[in-house]
Structures are given as structure tokens and as C-alpha cells.
Amino acid sequence: MTRPAARGGSRASADRLARLLNLVPYLLARPGIEIAEAAGDLGVTERQLREDLELLWVCGLPGYGPGDLIDMAFDGDRVTITYDAGIDRPLRLTPDEALALVVALRMLAETPGVANRDAVERALAKIENAAGDLVGAPVAVQLPGDTERVRELRDAVQRGRALRITYYTAARDESTERIIDPLRMLSVSGRAYVEAWCRRAEAVRLFRADRIDAFTELDEAAVVPSRARPADLTDGVFRPAPDLPLITLRIGRGERWITEYYPCERVEPGDGDRWLVSLRVTDLGWARRFVLGLGPDVTVVAPAELADQVRAQAVAALDAYASALPPGAAAVADPAGSWAGR
After folding, report:
1. In what residue span(s) does the WCX domain sit (predicted)?
2. Of 179, 261, 298, 303, which residue has the fewest beta carbons closer than 10 angstroms?
3. pTM score, two decimals?
4. Dist CA 229 CA 163 (whole Å)
């Protein structure tokens, strides 16, 4: 079996929904507008606009009879909305609907990386003002992983200053100090990141907020080179490149979660209930610590270098354990081969 390719279509659907919601008030304000002119204003082709108009014809109020649906008239290449199905009526929210919108907007305002936070806060203020006491109950919104450190980093990024950070790199198991010029804050899979130009690496890097051990806001403005580009995180933070090391593991039933948590290039059934899993890693040092942390139900199949590293560290750990045993105590059998194969 293989892992599915990147998901597609959801972004296009969201864009079309936004366009349809904007289309009716746009046409209401411009009766008799030429389709070509409307397509140009809306940034779509004439064909796409005609497809949107055909979809609008089957949209409307519950009941969805002829008198409930949006209707329009065509005069050659001109279009006029003749019935808008009440889309221009003032929106009236129930208390539950108003409260749900307030909670959603507060959560959106707290999400790192929101492109136009001012627009979110303006919309929130309008709804709270219109709803009045309907949403007067105190509501506290906190995203997963939204710690005090994340809030401090978000404020620092918004001030547009360069930061000196002490950062722990899990792949190399080391902490380094570097100066970064932040681009934005992001939230991916429940974790907060600072995306920034790293002066040490001379490239754009993602820094996990919970791995920034310390940071200092400098007295200089963040200066991001014109060649720097934000990362495409559509498929997640880690996007394995073909030049990264490829490792193959034989895993038992209890370790199959690996195939859901990490991007795997190949997953195949093996002997019994075991699977053969191949995935790319940033380096073999990280892979060694990863395999040792999984336990004895995992065997390194390839590369041989990783198997040797795992075996050597497992044996060293067992030797250290044996030397710490009291006189006369029996050491456990050597399980190093369970990780590395023999």
C-alpha cells in the first residue's frame, strides 16, 4: 500500500463559495452589466462566470421551489438579478448564532498567521456591538499550544523587530543561538511556529515556538531579503526531499501509528502482522534517536549505517546498565538486535 497524494480541490471550492457570496450583491448593484465586464471585475473567465450563474439558479431559500430560488434575466450578453431570495436583507442572528460567531472570531483573532487580523477584530467588534447582552457572557478562547511564550513571540513579531533566539534543534539534539528576521507566526497541526529569515543559515526557516528556549527583541527592525519567500505548508511542515536519507523499518502492529504520523514513501505488508515502512529523515542522527525511542518491536532494515549506529548505542546503554547493577545481580539478555537486526 502507498500513502495518498496531496489533497486537492478544497481550496478551489472555498474560492468559489466566496465568489458566489459576492456575486449576487455585485450584480444587484449593476443591473444589465455585460458578462465580459463582470468577469473582468471578478477576476474570472467568462466561462467560469456563466458556470457560477448556472449554479446560482439552483440556490435560494428552504423549500427551494420556483419562488424561493435566485432568478436572473439575460439580454444578449447582459445579466440582471430579478430575484435575490432575500440575500440583501439585514442579517438577524439568534443568541446562539451570535455567540458562535463571537467565539469563532475570537479564536481566529488568536490564531498565529492570520493575514488580516484588523479585519477580524473589526468584524468581531461590530457583532458584539450589535448583539449587545446576547453575547454578554464571558467567553475565554485559547487555542491548543497557545502558551504565554507563544503570545510573547506573536507580540514581538507584530512589532517588526529582529530577534536573538536560543533554539533547540531536535534533529541534531543541540541548542544554538541565532538572529532571525521574522516574517510571520503560523499555527500548523496545533503547534505554533515563527517563520523567519535566519541570518546564520541565510535562508527562510521555521522555528517551533516550544523549542525557542529564550529570545531577546533587538533594537533593529527585521529586514527580510527580497528573495525570501514564505513556505508552502499545504501538505504540512515537513516536506521530504528526494535527496534526504531514506530509511526502511520493519514494524509490528503496535508501531503502525508511524504511517499516520510521518509522511512515508512506501508501506508494504511483511511477514505475519509486520509492515515494511520507508520514509525520509532529516539526518541519521535523528533517525537513530527515533528508532531507539520506539522500542524492541522495530527493526532497522536499511541503511546498514543506521542499523550499526542503533546497535552500538543500544549495546553501550546495556553495558552502562550492567555496570550499575549491584554485585550478584543478573543482567537482562541483550535486546540490541531487536532494533538493529542481526
Report:
1. 248-318
2. 261
3. 0.43
4. 19
> pLDDT for 243-265, tens place per residue?
788 989 999 888 888 887 777 88
Surface-to-core class of residue 153, CB atoms within 10 Å of its CB (0-12 exposed, 13-18 middle, 19+ buried): buried
157 Cβ neighbours under 8 A, 6+ residues apart: 182, 184, 185, 194
Distance from C-alpha of 81 to C-alpha of 158, rounded to nearest angstrom: 44
Cα torsion 171, 174, 179, 181 to 10°: value is 20
Q: How is the chain split into domains, by residue range?
A: 12-83, 95-135, 148-221, 246-340
CATH assignment of 12-83, among 2.60.40, 1.10.10, 3.30.565, 3.30.1450: 1.10.10
Helix (H, G, I), strand (E, B) or coil at 314: helix
Which grid coordinates are listed for 10? 478544497
- DSSP strand E in the chain: where? 33-34, 71-75, 78-83, 161-169, 174-188, 191-198, 203-208, 212-221, 246-251, 264-269, 275-280, 298-302
CATH, range 148-221 = 2.30.30
Model pLDDT for residues 105-156, shown as the tens digit of each residue = 777 766 655 556 677 777 777 777 766 665 555 565 555 555 777 878 888 8
Q: Apex CA 315: angle with CA 173 and CA 329, to 5°?
A: 120
DSSP state of 166: E
Q: How many residues does the chain have?
A: 342
Q: Say how many Å lie between the first and final Cα of the chain, rounded.
A: 27
Partners of 267 in the β-ladder:
277
